[in-house]
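Model the whole thing, not chain by chain.
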Amino acid sequence: MADPQAAITARGVVVRRGGRPILDGVDLTIEHGSPFAIVGRSGSGKTTLMMAIAGLLALDAGTIRIGPSALAERAPRARAQRIGIVFQSHELFMNMPVLENVMLAPPLSGATDSRSRAERLLVDLGLDGLAQRRPHELSGGQRQRVAIARTLALDPQVVLFDEPSASLDPQTTRELAALLAEVGTRRQVVVVSHGVAFVEQCCERTIRMSAGRVEAQGQLADVVER
Amino acid sequence: MTPLAKARGARLRLRRALVRWGVRWAAPWGVLAGIGCLQPLVAAADDAVLVVGLTGKYPPFNYFDNQGELVGFDVDFAKALCAPCVGSMAITEERSRAVRFSVPSYESGARLFVRPVLKTAYRAVPDGQRLAARSLGLSRFEAMRWVIAPQMLPICTGPALNTVVAMIKDSAVVSAIGVTELTLQTQQLVASTYRPLELYGLAAVLYFALTWPLLLLGRRLELRWREAGLLHG
């Protein structure tokens, strides 16, 4: 039975692509707590698992729960308020300025103070002064922080990060780790990464994925291949 | 400022905003919708009767042969005309009640051109943008309205405007089947006035006046979108 207290519960999750299982029966429980890492080599299914947890692809079998209720039972709006995702390629909406990116979704869910909230988020993330810039004018690190602000604007209980340290320089990577730790104090953060060096900076608990299954679970120091 | 001047200022601002909105949104989508609506030309129904009166006294145009049959170019032409009676008319539900349309005899090339343009533009917007929109709780329609369509617009406006310009110039071709447009009208005027240079010159200027502003519009939009990072290459 799924633990209703857990942030994320996955049971027997199977996702196939062209007959081949990408996720082959994943069982996973992430209790509320410090940032959680999902590590594994390229092709181990970790990004697919993240997309499944975010509700962006259909499961061939199994269930995923965010908090007490199953993902499949949620309308897209309610799901987005529960769980947010920051994509590896950030996927800022190119057709709108930074501020509009951040304040697009909340009004659709009925928020009325989205502008002031978005402006506050931009300041918190060190993006003040960039509100009217277009995404293509920003650096990679700035784009990532806009993507984080956009996700946090809906105030989700769980935030997923897909390969957040990809293509960042060491200094920016350290700042990102500090930011994730801070974001993680108020909500559950899950980081997917193949780079152990990064997750060591912000996560303690982890699972290691291999061939579409959970190969090991526990403390980062014990689980990580050396 | 007097109240009148204030009102005028507000009106001007409103007009400017409307024009800006028009150039940014309504014009390009309107052009696209316009081409999309171009329907195939149609042929008349099979049992239509075309009555042609001929004297039979103008060989080789129309005359009676040895067997006493009416023959000649005019007869051949009338017979050919009866086979497909071509009319350049879009098939709509309302018109179908008054006109018996047959199977369309040809499709406008422009119409065939628009679908691939839209399809390509849709595919050119990265899939991640759709996923990101969905992850933020946007519905399919909202994602299209706020994220996908605004990014498709810059991509398809260039090719679409191209098509419109080509179509305006190609419209001269329909003079061959007797549709009175600019070229045919000019020909008729030349036939009665014997002033080809001035009249064809004027026609050229008119074609230019129709197409050049579209070109300028396209260039302006492209520049703007390039600055906004929505067009590359």
